[in-house]
Amino acid sequence: TANFISIIKSGKLPDGSKCEAFLDGKRIPGGDRSGHPPLPREKLPNCEKMIVLTDYESLEPLYPQLTRWRRSRDGCAAQYQGKSAFRGFQTMTARHGIVCEDRRKVTMHG
Fold it and tell me: How confident is residue 95, by pLDDT bands cut at 50, 70 and 90?
């Protein structure tokens, strides 16, 4: 969730994030790419056409005025961060400056 919020508010992955994210066939800037292989240079199948993955030089924030984040889940402790999901989500206001709503729908539990 923190990676999504960073992309939406700032247009990049948080420093130190060990993941890659793509939008429209372009890799979103930021994060820690050490240990990641280089992007393939050949065309890859997409749902509608063949694409070549490239890098964004920079990406404008998608929605910098984001003030509220809502997630719905079934309340199972194994979701998201496991038992620490409560702490991680409840501290997001301090870490990201947004109000976070955690909606539990027990009827969704499988």
Answer: confident
Whether 51 contacts 24, CB under 8 Å: no
- What predicted TM-score, i.e. pTM, was given to this entire model? 0.72
For residue 68, count other CB atoms closer than 10 A to its CB: 8
8 or 45: whose pLDDT is higher?
8
Q: Helix, strand or coil for residue 67?
A: coil
Q: Would you call 102 helix, strand, or coil by DSSP?
A: strand
28, burial (CB in 10 Å: exposed 0-12, middle 13-18, buried 19+): buried
DSSP sequence for 38-63:
PPP-S-EE-SSSEE--EE-S----S-
Is residue 7 classed exposed, middle or buried when 0-12, 13-18 and 19+ CB atoms within 10 A define those classes? buried
The two three-digit tokens of residue 19, written as one number:
């993941």
